[in-house]
Amino acid sequence: MHSDLIAAENLAYNYQDGTRALDGVTLSLPHNAKAAILGPNGAGKSTLFLHFNGLLRPHSGLVYYKGKALQYHTKALQVLRREVGIVFQNPDNQLFSSSVFQDISFGLMNQGCNPAEARRRVEEVGSKLGIEPLFSKPTHFLSVGQKKMVALAGVLVMEPELIICDEPTAGLDPGNAERFMRVLDELHRQGKAMVISTHDVNLAYQWADVVWLLNKGKVLAQGSPVEVFSQREVLKAARLETPWLLETWQEMAALGLASPNLPPRSKSQFRQTLIKP
Amino acid sequence: MNSIDQAAYNSPWYLLHPAVKLGLTLAILVVVLALDSRTISCLVILAIFALLVGKARVSWRLYLGLMAIPLVFLTVGCVSVAITNSTLSTGIWPGVYAGGMWWGVSPQSLQEAINLLLRSLACVSAMYLLALTTPVVQLVYVLRLFKLPGVAVDLMGLIYMNIFIFLQTAQDIYVAQQSRCGYRGFAGHLTSLTALLSNLFIKNLQRSNACYDALLARGFKGSLQVLDEQYIVRPLHLALSGMFIASLILIHSYGGWICTLI
Ligand SMILES: Nc1ncnc2c1ncn2[C@@H]1O[C@H](COP(=O)(O)OP(=O)(O)OP(=O)(O)O)[C@@H](O)[C@H]1O
Ligand SMILES: [Mg+2]
Fold first, then answer.
1. Do A97 and B157 touch (CB under 8 A)?
2. Residue nearest ligand 1's atom 24 by CA
3. What is the ipTM of this complex?
């Protein structure tokens, strides 16, 4: 656990009204890993994320970042937040400036980036996400999906060590969702770690290195996508379906039509497992 | 408010340096107020109309609509200036006798009222010249250039932004209530409206907490540091602005013959 990038140990958190949002959560994320967290609405995903950069303080349990337990004084939190970036589920809560360009630059300027470099990075991320046309629009006249893209850009430019995205692809059209995932993958190749929450089992299965299943504030399962998604009972408890790729492969392997050794993670791998009659 | 803001963001002059736009507006205001001349006021009103509609691609419908609002108020105000009283009935039209005085409109008071109306309209035009080409964020930027305290400037930007969100939230709640049969009858109006107001308050409180969290997550340390847009300053614009102001003053000083036309 202490060799991991971030880890939660026995986290518990209650909201003021007494809702137990986290109830003994123990999880860990290795360096340079891609994690997906799944679970029904109200499972505690967003609450967990707020713990990862110290916005919420657990009532019991600890969060470790790079092997050290989080400290909650301002200085330590500022350092932590420079390394752990979080994109909020609701972009309206994140966009504070009425200028798209300025909003995206905010985190960078706080990191002490010099203006010329900051400008270059804002423009670069803007073009990767295809949102330059929005730069001269005010944030309050954007559509929901457009706001989401801007909010994502505002954190991606900071290039944090750990990028946390709360339902990043919800509300995005397929093109934008793909563009965003491509930028994430690029950051992953540069050695960053990332966690996304999603309700899309297929995305989680194909994309993630680690899957966490959460329900009612408790961890139901964690492990590689194949491990987690092979546990039917657990999936049922979390009201999730088996990813179509895995399910098709399992059925074909049972019929002897696919090689039963290694479960495929992508369409092309799936093609390779097929046994030609 | 929405339409002005939208026009400003879509203006072809969006990227011109806001300090120049603000400077021109202030210069026009000063000239109009200081010279106090009908000719100049008319020229300014026409010139700004031509500039905004012709060059800055503001639709004339929008512009006339925007001008109509202050026009109503100004006309009402100027009517009271036009009406005067006198102990003599000569030179007063229509000359109503009341309370030991003759009431009506005299040539001087009429002139004064017209002067006032034109001058006010010229000032309003100048303000629209700014408002329709310069979003508020840019004005906030100018204030920062002039070394206003950072907290005040940050607050201005946030408040401005939140006005829109506040209006949007209120609008969303209102639509949601109406779509589920709110506002039926007198009692329905009352319950729906109280629900709207109290929810608006709660929602905004919650939102501001969430907003603050999001700022912290991106490393907020007490001041909203952002990159400023790169604005364009063209010598041509400065020269044209200067010439416009200078020609107004010249016309006022030497163009007496034009004044007689108006
Ligand atoms: N501010 C709050 N005050 C009280 N209870 C809250 C608050 N925020 C969340 N909760 C409760 O905490 C639990 C976990 O909420 P959380 O937002 O973490 O869920 P989630 O997994 O992100 O769900 P979703 O998929 O809908 O985003 C829920 O039961 C929710 O009702
Ligand atoms: Mg959530």
1. yes
2. A41
3. 0.73
Alpha carbon distance A21, A37 (integer Å): 15
Give residue A68's pLDDT band: very low, low, confident or very high (50, 70, 90). Answer: very high
How far is it, in rounded angstroms, from Cα B244 to Cα B253? 14
Q: Give the phi and the psi of residue A49 in degrees, each rounded to 5.
A: -60, -40
Backbone angles phi, psi at A195, to 5 degrees: -130, 130
Residue A236 lies inside a defined structural domain of this protein? yes
Q: Based on the domain organization, do B21 and B85 belong to the same domain?
A: yes
- Ligand 1 centre to CA of A62 (Å) is 20
Q: Are A171 and A145 in contact (CB under 8 A)?
A: yes
Counted domains in chain B:
2
pTM for the whole structure: 0.79
In angstroms, the first-to-last Cα distance of chain B is 34
Could you give the CA distance from residue A124 to residue B227 in angstroms, rounded to a whole number? 15
Which B residues 118-157 touch A at CB under 8 Å? 135-137, 157
Q: Give residue-wise pLDDT tens across range B147-188.
A: 888 888 888 888 887 787 788 788 878 877 776 767 777 887
Which residues from B are below 8 Å from A110, CB to CB?
Answer: 218-221, 225
**Burial annotation B3-36 (CB, 10 A radius, 16+ → b, else e):** ebbbbbbebebbebbbbbbbbbbebbbebbeebe
Tell me which residue range forms the domain holding A271: 243-277
Q: How far is the CA of B213 from the centre of ligand 1 (A)?
A: 15
Per DSSP, the three-state class of A265 is: coil
The token pair at A55 is 């916005």
Q: Copy the structure tokens of residue A41.
A: 């609405």
| Structural domain harbouring B194 | 135-229
